[in-house]
Amino acid sequence: MKRKPDHGFPGRDAIVAFIRANPGKVGTREIAREFGLKNADRIELKRILRELADDGTVAKRRRKIHEPAALPPTVLADITGRDSDGELIATPAEWDSEDGSAPKIRIETPRRPKPGTTAGVGDRALLHVEVTDEHDGTPYRGRVIKVIDHGRARILGIFRKNPDGGGRLIPVDKKQAGRELNIAQPDSGDAEDGDLISVDLIRTRGYGLASARVKERLGSIASEKAISLIAINTHDIPQVFSSSALREAEDARPATLQGREDWRDVPLVTIDPPDAKDHDDAVHAEVDSDPNNKGGFIVHVAIADVAYYVRPGSALDRDALQRGNSVYFPDRVVPMLPERISNNLCSLVPGEPRGALAVRMVIGADGRKRSHSFHRVLMRSAAKLNYAQAQAAIDGRPDDTTGPLLDPILKPLWSAYELVKLARNERDPLDLDLPERKILLKPDGTVDRVIVPQRLDAHRLIEEFMILANVAAAEMLEKKALPLIYRVHDEPSQEKVHNLQEFLKTLDLPFTKQGALRPTQFNRVLAQVAGEDYEPLVNEVVLRSQAQAEYSAENYGHFGLNLRRYAHFTSPIRRYADLIVHRALIRALGLGEGALPTDESVETLAEIAAQISVTERRAMKAERETTDRLIAHFLADRIGASFQGRISGVTRAGLFVKLDDTGADGLIPIRTIGSEYFNYDEARHALIGTRSGTMYRLGDVVDVRLVEAAPVAGALRFELLSDGQTIPRGRKRDGVGTERRSAGFGKGPNKGSGKKAHKERKARKKKDRKPAKPTSGKSKRGKSWK
């Protein structure tokens, strides 16, 4: 029943109460419907909501209005302990520290819990949460939907041998730094000094070291091949498939023509990195012969039919969901599916018939997609190409493989891409220039060098065709009114946009926000700094202002790509979200076996989306930590060497510097910078000397000396060799907006004379110079937004 007051507009309190009563479900439309507001009333409603957002009463996220930093209804959480009443307490597994401390969730235990919902301390579980009215430090209550992972007493670390034959374990987990474990000689197995081992905790003591027993030797830490094992074990990434899943994979047989369209004569080709082990997407383009689409093209994108082999509820399906995605390290891949599936039956190798789910897209002369259709096909790849090889052929340097393909296959692909670029440019997605580095290993597993692969049109061609296919999948499933898992990316928060505006002011760069926020506004700034010395700085700060992409059963669009609807369809070999989309398409279009079950609800998909969003972040963190450890290992014998780099992070602890040649990140502690005290200026992303006005800012090019390398932690520590910039007199100097007056006098907090001023300066300097907390040596990285 609609609740519009008899006299005028609903009050602020009524609107806030409605938002609180429906966390994560309320937008402008829902509020208007609840209070019976007409279209003419919405201007006033939006004004009130802006006021509520400005004063911090509500916050907008995913195009829904919440209380500030509110949790969504479904949360993946870690159970961290119990309260004084013995009830379990949990915190979200993923939480942005910029939103403050992670909220606590009190878990309610029913009298008769359902199977799989009994959780304990140390477990990770999927929870349904609700806001409480209690003021006891636990603003949420939760109910366990499913236990994802049970806590383990196993710990990973480095074995250091004692003369008596026993030893100690030094944990690799930074959270356990300093908590060494005693290993008696009978419990040490065959572990050697320096081995990476896993142990079981066997007892704890009221005093002294706790004891452990060696469970597994994972190899010597002196070998880079053991480095990725640290991340795999630290983040509990499953790397052994269940015997039933392996049995299902071995029993699987190649797809046949039964129930499929025959596309074996369509000359589809795969274009991948040169070291790719699986090839799950193929492309083809041809001129559209339809006279109503003169100048247009037909683009085919075929994706390996993983759903044919991985059926809902099967052992393969359970293992794939637990992994969520494949994880890629420089020396190995931890796949989402067994090799029999990913590298054999679902790898689109040339000349072999393979099952695929394909989309046929009609592209107009203006580059826009006019229509699309999905097909379950049997295809046969015409060639396996890598990006550089395909690009060289288009640039006039074909080889024996690409020569015969140039006119009939490659040129039509590039012509279609030229059209698609027109629509992309008109859409104007976020255009960040952030080169990615790649570690190349020697045959023995040691680091050879670090490179920045060249970004080619061949990369962009595949990327744009995959984006088109992903959009087509989302549109088709919405048209058929089927639930799906979207790939979503929220717009930046008001706070982050404000911080970006304040930073850009320091560079005299305008950033005006009028109306709805669009990627075009960020691209305008990026275009202004193209070719300038501070171009990398601005790209980095713009990236940090963005939200992180995730999976969701609720569609709130993809801000970075500037798309209203988007789903991952193009890589079901390595992403569980894509497998769900394939199953949904099979069900929607009646394409045969392997369809999404009819009882798969939006609520179930919301749970899966929350789970695989966490596994994706887990993979990203593990990959990043492994890269840091490998490079720290690579540089460990170059202590004392000098390097050039850029300041990649500025915090109260000091400066993070990214080296130009390797991309390695390391810390310069604030206490080691110069001979004066430095204040942190958040708006400038800078440290500024209180006496001289010397400034070190994010993006500055600096020379550093390597003074310490810790391969196990992936940490580097540098010494600063470069002088900073000096702020002219009269300009703001420190993080609190003071101005330099005259020598030793003035109204700023570092000026003045007398006992009181002296005490204030002394207290402030003590605060500024407090020892930095232990750090991993990593900068605050940019977030994935695609």
From TrEMBL:
It is found in: Cytoplasm. PROSITE patterns: RIBONUCLEASE_II, S1. Residues 95-120, 727-786 are annotated as: Disordered. Its EC number is 3.1.13.1. CDD domains: S1_RNase_R (cd04471). It catalyses: Exonucleolytic cleavage in the 3'- to 5'-direction to yield nucleoside 5'-phosphates. It comes from the Bacteria. Residues 753-786 have a biased composition (Basic residues). Keywords: Cytoplasm, Exonuclease, Hydrolase, Nuclease, RNA-binding. Residues 733-742 have a biased composition (Basic and acidic residues). Transmembrane segments: none annotated. Residues 640-721 form the S1 motif domain. 3'-5' exoribonuclease that releases 5'-nucleoside monophosphates and is involved in maturation of structured RNAs. This is Ribonuclease R.
